[in-house]
Amino acid sequence: MRGLALWILGLTPALAQVSLPFWHTAGPPGQALLEEAVQAFNSAQRQYRLEARYAGEYREAGVKLMAALRSGGAPVLFQAELSFLPRLVQEGVALPLDGEIGEPGDFYPEALKSGQVKGKTYGLPIGLSVPVLYYNLDAFRAKGLKPPATWDEVEKAAAALKSRTARGLVISTDIWSFNAVVMSLGGSLVKDGRPNFTAPEVVEALERLYRMVQRQDALARNLAEAQFAVADFLRTKAFMGLAPTTALPVVLYHTSLPFQVGYAPLPRGPKGAVPFSGATLVVLKGASPEQVKGAVAFWRFFTEPKRMARWVEATHYVPLRKSAEAELKDFLKDPMRKAVFAQIEVARPWSQDPEMVLWYGFLEEALEKSLKQGVPPQKALEEAQRRALSVEPK
User: What are 324-370's pLDDT values in tens digits?
Assistant: First the structure.
C-alpha cells in the first residue's frame, strides 16, 4: 500500500493542471460569453486551467498591466488592445507565437496580421471590429435621404439634416476615428515607420471634417467628451456618427433607443480600406512552454465556428474565420448588417509601429485645435508632424 501511495505521488506533477492567470477586457454584453467559454474550456480538458479576471476597459487594463509587470503579479495571458500590442513587444514582455499557432486554416489573413508586429506574431486575435457609419434611420427617411456611399454624400447629408438645435454629424477627435477616415481615402498615418501626418490623404480627411464643422453641419467632440458624443446621437442632437461595429450592442445593453438605427459601411475611395480595432490575446514573458501551449489551445477553442458565431451575434465583432460565417446565416440576413460585416474583406491592421505611442497625442491635439478651435487643417497637421519628428527615436 505504501508503495502504491508513493507511485501515485510520483505521478502528481505530471497530472497537475497548468494554471494560466488571464486578464481580460471584455465587458457586457460579451463578458458573460467569454467567461462561459473559459469555464467550458476548463471542463473540456484536464491539462490546463484558465483563471479569468476582468481587468477593466482597454486603457485601464493597460495601466494595471504595466504596473503589475514592474511590481510583480502580472498574468500569463492578457487581452491587449491592438495599438497596445506593439508597446508590449517593444518592452520585451510579449512572447512570439509563430511556432505555436500552426496552420492558419480558414482565418482571414488580415485578421491574423492584426496580431503581428514587424512580421512576427505576438497576438492571437479574439475580437476585431470594423468602423460603421451609424445614422438615425427615421430622420433619413423623413428627409428622403439614402445612406451615404461617398464622403461627398456624407457632407450633403450632414447639411440636409442640421437644424437650429441639431447637427448632421458628430465627430470625435480621437486617433481611431480620424484614422478610419484617412484609411478610407487610401492614406496612412505612418509611412516607412515614420509619422505621415501631412500626406495628401491625411490633409484631405481633416479638411473634410473641418469644412463640416465650420459650416455647423457637424459637431466635434474630444476624447474626454466621448460620452457626450454618444448622448448627442441618442438625444437626436446629431444624426450620424462613426463608431466600431461593437458600439451598438453596448448601447443597447444599457438603454433603449427612441428611433430606428441605420448602419452603413464606411465610405471609401478606390484605394480605400478600413481599420480593424479590438484586441488580441498576448502571452507574457515568464510563461512556461506548457502555459504558451495552453494559451494557444484556449484561443483555438474559443474561435471554433459555433462558439465564434455566438460571440459575433452578442458583440458584433466580425467573424475571424470563414467557417463561422456559415453559422451566421440568419444574423447576416439583414442587408445593412451584411454590408457592414462584408468590410472584413477590405479591413487592415492600422497601428503596428511601437513609436505610434510617442506620436498619437500630438495628432489628437492637432485634431482638437483644428476642429474645436478653428486652426486651419494644414497648419495643425504640420505642427503635429514637426512635434512627432522631434521625438522620433534616433
Answer: 999 999 999 999 999 999 999 999 988 777 777 788 899 999 999 99
- 157 and 125 in a single domain? The answer is no
CB contact set of 348 (below 8 Å; sequence gap of 6+): 110, 113, 183, 273, 274, 275, 276
User: Collapsing DSSP states into helix, strand and coil, what is residue 44?
Assistant: helix
Verify that 77 and 110 share a domain, yes or no. Answer: yes
Asked if 310 and 227 sit in the same domain, the reply is no
Alpha carbon 335 to its chain centroid, in Å, reads: 23
Task: Give the residue with greater pLDDT, 211 vs 227.
Answer: 211
- On whether the CB atoms of residues 347 and 130 are closer than 8 A, the answer is yes
Question: How far, in Å, CA of 302 to CA of 65, rounded?
Answer: 23
Single-letter residue type at 336? M
Based on the fold, state whether residues 147 and 295 are members of the same structural domain.
Answer: no
Structural domain that includes position 34: 16-129+277-346
267 and 361 part of one domain: yes
Handedness of CA 85, 90, 94, 97 (dihedral sign): positive
Query: Of the ranges 106-110, 160-164, 353-357, which one carries the lowest mean pLDDT score?
Result: 353-357
CATH number of 196's domain? 3.40.190.10
CB 220 within 8 A of CB 213: yes
Q: Establish if 359 belongs to a structural domain.
A: yes
Helix pair angle (356-373, 377-390), 10° resolution:
160
Examine the domain organization and report whether 27 and 164 are in the same domain: no
Mean pLDDT rounded to a whole number for the chain: 92
Number of folded domains in the chain? 2
Establish if 193 belongs to a structural domain. Answer: yes
The answer as to whether 68 is a domain residue is yes
Pair 321, 304: CB distance under 8 Å: no
Going by C-alpha positions, the residue among 347, 364, 350, 368 that lies closest to residue 266 is 347
Bond before 96 cis per omega within 30 degrees: no
Average pLDDT over residues 64-87: 94
| pLDDT 10s digits, 234-279 | 999 999 999 999 999 999 998 888 999 999 999 999 999 999 999 9
